[in-house]
Write a structure and sequence with these properties.
heterodimer; A: 266 residues; alpha/beta; 2 domains; globular; B: 678 residues; Dimethylsulfoxide Reductase, domain 2; 4 domains; 7-stranded mixed sheet; binds iron/sulfur cluster
Chain lengths: 266, 678
């Protein structure tokens, strides 16, 4: 274990009383996710390879039971946990978040405008990156040109489901993209509906972590798409994901009254 | 609760993606792609993401079985192993060791395949060992060995994205090798021109720069046509031809008659398209050729491979980055099964069994005299079984009852055997006929290595225990070897087996498990301080000069007739894998492609009154199946396509077992068929 690992373990177990810690570590030259309990040596801790730990955690939730989980948490992960907590998927209060400030390089790669966690435990806060160059370019195109751009991109899709499987806020047990109602075609590429449904289904949840784009084997600029939808959500409803106080406008009745139901069906 | 993330290699296609298996208290719950892996870069296809799903399926075989009074019953390991050994001893005593054949497996590790061939050669005393590479890339190995002196992919997967042109033929890359397809698309995004030649439109061809449809079985004609255009227009690389090849004058002569007009007549490729493809390929600074079963599974497959090698050599596209001739191997370890000597004519590391020096070396290492003659191939073994030359078969992890051509004939042959032992993870059509069934461990339950299609040694790590009493195949092979009285089967771990293989197979000389874990090593890697060889033939061919082998077009073995007017071709889809033993037990994959179907061209369908989704009957000279029609413009008129994954409508009831004379690969890609509304 390296110094970083020792520090993470100390914060998680000694200072904040967690039972298990989810982080990244290097073993034999490769970096991957690890879950350890106190006293276990996970190999050398690493923070420079962006695994989506919240998505990895949600896959394990049915098995975790009452254990108190500490998780290495970037700003986007923090927001994802808030969205999951709002829908009753995780109990945010029982989790230990170890705040990770992303590096300059990572912020550039994610074109991230909200990059500092509420409490920085690891790393140093760096300047946000305000613009997504491709979003600006697309914004200056005609609707037809923009549609043509996305059609060309979506035709590369080979339906790996990486964008949903690795997304921290994709949590439905039965994914609508996997059944045949909206995507009846067998084979690839899937219908345009595949991407549009995903796009809308995440409109009030996406925290712009960029994992969908990083997971996409055919380099579809999915994060740019997310940023453009999120911008519309902001402009139209003054809503941004990851705000614990605000209810999703999509869960509001048409006479502007918030729904009483917690709405964790979606 | 204990959670582990165990890094291992995908058990499906030969791309060799790596991922972490998520294990909670001995249960596989998910897959996380490995972001630091050079090949997969944190991405997978849908099969990779579901690679945990079949492993703990209730259908898994959990204990050995022996046949008694016609029924398979549960047995102890001792009983089952002793039964195999006594039957093999009895049969070899009566009919000699060549009456036995061992089938190795492209799904097993390098270490296991090394043991399977050692079992055949050193313990049983026969070179009768083969595996399903015979059915996919035997023609590659034979063809490229002759042209280049090495039968494997010349370049590597990451190089695709930096090519200026990629010529893809006979490969539905985005479905069969999704992550390689993705690299090719990345090249296109960076400005490369992708040319796809295939009788079917594929997801890749539909977005490629040029998509060309040829009549199945006419490949040499269009390849020779391209070479002629290239030479006539002076686009060939004279320097490379002079320095690095032999036979150019003969090649020039043989391609002369392949004018664009004549090629159009044979292949139905419009001549402008052919001319454009030739210019695009030849004028690219770095051009790669990628191909798969659409090239190899023909009676002249070996010659098509040589023709592609000619095309690469006349344009100087060998021996540099992002060039070369790149056969895409279909299974996780079909490359390794060949490397490890799971072939009747080759020891590990492609050393010929007929070469006295090679034999001496292995005799010294294994402490036994070894048979000097080549063994029989998988495809011939079934014919030999019918005439009583082969009496016993030991099959490790293969399912010839669905994967081989003309299944009815295979079944007849298997029933003629005096003894059949099968090691498997699930019950299959083949285990049903076995006298002894041994329960094996799957990739998630053992250590070892696979070799990906680009010659990279990819470690496989044990994540969980095998179910019940099932055992890894390497242990089963060791037990059989020991019980047959042979020495040299006392391995206590796969890493020891790799050490022995590294000592005897020069391309693997520098490979060890410890190194493979830390580095991406591509053979040849002759010594412990060697970094591996990404690009083959840099600075010239090891055999001196590359051989330009002149080859001529010949029609497929079976021609269409009035009775069988359609050309039937077979292949895969994205969601299923081979005989479906694993994918059809993975709910998310099965849901995407649950049913067998035949693709029929729109105009043919209209003429025959067939509607999309309607039931049809497809028959050939060998059999008949009934399935759903998928009516599409994506296939040529006169051609139909059936994926071979489905037992309920097995395409291989129809296919032609006619063989390539050199590689003995069957012609899965062309047979004459009839199509009727059911
Ligand atoms: S950026 Fe992509 S992966 Fe991340 S939350 Fe948004 S949709 Fe999900
Ligand atoms: S990750 Fe990319 S290829 Fe995979 S399903 Fe999503 S958009 Fe398609
Ligand atoms: S591309 Fe091949 S190796 Fe990679 S995940 Fe898919 S099936 Fe597995």
């Amino acid at each position: 274990m390296n110094d970083l690992g020792r520090r993470l373990a100390r914060i998680a177990f000694d200072e904040r009383g967690a039972d298990i810690l989810l982080m990244m570590a290097e073993n034999q030259g490769n970096v991957g996710p690890v879950i350890i309990s106190k006293g276990q040596d996970p190999g050398d801790a690493r923070i420079d390879v962006p695994y989506q730990l919240v998505a990895i955690l949600t896959n394990l939730l049915p098995f975790i039971g009452k254990a108190k989980v500490a998780i290495l948490c970037r700003r986007c992960d923090e927001k994802a946990l808030i969205e999951l907590a709002k829908r009753g998927i995780v109990d945010d209060a029982s989790m230990v978040r170890i705040g990770l400030a992303c590096s300059k390089e990572q912020i550039q790669a994610c074109r991230c405008s909200d990059c500092v966690p509420s409490k920085v435990d690891i790393g140093e806060a760096a300047e946000p990156c305000p613009e997504d160059a491709l979003a600006i370019e697309l914004g200056s195109m005609t609707i037809e040109q923009r549609a043509a751009f996305w059609m060309r991109q979506f035709r590369k899709c080979n339906k790996c489901f990486g964008c949903t499987l690795n997304c921290p806020v994709c949590f439905c047990d039965d994914c609508v993209l996997e059944e045949r109602t909206y995507t009846p075609k067998e084979g690839i590429p899937p219908e345009l509906a595949f991407h549009l449904i995903r796009s809308f289904h995440l409109a009030d949840k996406c925290v712009e972590c960029g994992e969908c784009e990083r997971s996409c084997p055919v380099d579809i600029p999915l994060l740019t798409l997310r940023k453009m939808v999120n911008r519309d959500m902001k402009n139209m409803f003054d809503y941004g994901s990851g705000d614990a106080e605000k209810k999703s406008p999509l869960l509001t009745t048409l006479d502007d009254q918030p729904l009483e139901d917690d709405g964790h069906a979606c | 609760m204990h959670v582990d993330h165990v890094l291992t290699t995908c058990p499906y296609c030969g791309t060799g993606c790596r991922f972490y298996l998520q294990v909670v208290d001995g249960r596989l719950v998910g897959v996380v792609p490995c972001k630091t892996d050079e090949i997969s870069q944190g991405k997978l296809c849908i099969k990779g993401y579901n690679a945990h799903a079949f492993v703990q399926h209730p259908d898994r075989l959990t204990h050995p079985m022996v046949r008694e009074d016609g029924q398979l019953r549960k047995a102890t390991w001792d009983e089952a192993l002793d039964k195999v050994v006594s039957e093999i001893k009895r049969i070899t005593a009566e009919h000699g060791p060549d009456s036995v054949i061992v089938l190795a497996s492209a799904k097993c590790t390098n270490e296991e395949n090394y043991l399977f061939q050692k079992l055949a050669r050193a313990a049983i005393g026969t070179n009768n060992v083969d595996h399903c590479a015979r059915l996919c890339h035997a023609s590659t190995v034979a063809g490229l060995l002759m042209s280049f002196g090495s039968g494997a992919m010349t370049n590597t997967i990451p190089e695709f994205e930096d090519a200026d042109c990629v010529l893809v033929t006979g490969s539905n890359t985005l479905e069969a090798h999704p992550l390689i397809g993705a690299r090719i698309l990345r090249a296109q995004d960076k400005g490369a021109k992708i040319v796809v030649v295939d009788p079917r439109d594929t997801p890749l061809s539909r977005i490629a720069y040029s998509s060309i449809r040829q009549k199945p079985g006419t490949d040499i004609a269009w390849i020779n046509g391209m070479i002629k255009i290239i030479i006539d227009e002076g686009l060939h690389d004279e320097g490379f031809i002079k320095d690095h090849t032999s036979g150019f004058e003969d090649l020039k002569r043989i391609v002369q008659p392949y004018t664009p007009e004549r090629v159009e007549e044979i292949t139905s490729i419009p001549k402008e398209r052919l001319i454009d493809a030739a210019r695009t390929y030849a004028s690219a600074e770095r051009a790669m050729i990628a191909y798969a079963m659409g090239v190899t599974q023909h009676t002249n497959g070996t010659n098509i491979v040589r023709a592609l090698a000619n095309l690469a050599m006349v344009t100087g596209n060998v021996g540099r980055e992002s060039t070369g001739v790149n056969p895409l191997r279909g299974q996780c370890n079909v490359q390794g099964a060949c490397d490890a000597g799971g072939l009747p004519d080759l020891f590990p590391g492609y050393q010929k069994v007929e070469d006295a020096d090679a034999r001496k070396k292995f005799e010294a290492a294994w402490g036994k005299p070894l048979p000097p003659n080549k063994g029989t191939t998988l495809t011939c073994a079934f014919k030999d079984a019918l005439i009583g030359k082969v009496k016993a078969m030991i099959i490790f992890g293969e399912n010839p009852m669905l994967s081989d051509p003309d299944i009815a004939h295979v079944e007849e042959a298997i029933k003629e055997l005096e003894f059949l032992a099968v090691t498997e993870i699930f019950p299959t059509a083949t285990t049903k006929l076995a006298h002894v069934v041994l329960a094996g461990a799957c990739y998630a339950e053992k250590d070892g290595t696979f070799t990906s299609t680009d010659r990279a040694i990819r470690p496989v790590h044990k994540a969980i225990d095998p179910p019940g009493e099932a055992r890894p195949d390497w242990q089963i092979a060791c037990e059989l070897g020991r019980r047959l009285g042979a020495s040299g089967f006392d391995f206590s771990s796969p890493s020891e087996i790799m050490d022995e293989m590294a000592r005897l197979a020069p391309p693997y000389g520098g490979i060890s498990h410890a190194r493979a874990d830390r580095e991406v090593l591509r053979w040849p890697c002759p010594s412990k301080d060697h970094k591996g060889t990404p690009v083959l033939h840099v600075g010239g061919f090891k055999i001196g000069k590359g051989v330009l082998v002149p080859v001529d077009h010949a029609p497929p073995a079976e021609q269409t007739s009035e009775e069988y007017p359609f050309i039937l071709t077979t292949g895969r889809n994205l969601f299923q894998f081979h005989t479906g033993t694993m994918t059809r037990r993975s709910p998310k994959l099965e849901r995407e492609a649950p049913e067998p179907y035949v693709e029929v061209n729109t105009t043919d369908a209209k003429r025959l009154g067939i509607s999309d989704g309607g039931r049809v009957r497809v028959s050939s000279r060998r059999g008949e199946i009934s399935l759903k029609a998928r009516v599409t413009g994506w296939i040529m008129p006169g051609v139909i396509f059936i994926p071979f994954h489905y037992a309920e409508a097995a395409a291989n009831r129809l296919t032609n077992p006619a063989l390539d004379p050199v590689a003995k690969i069957p012609e899965f890609k062309v047979c004459a068929a009839q199509l009727e509304k059911a």
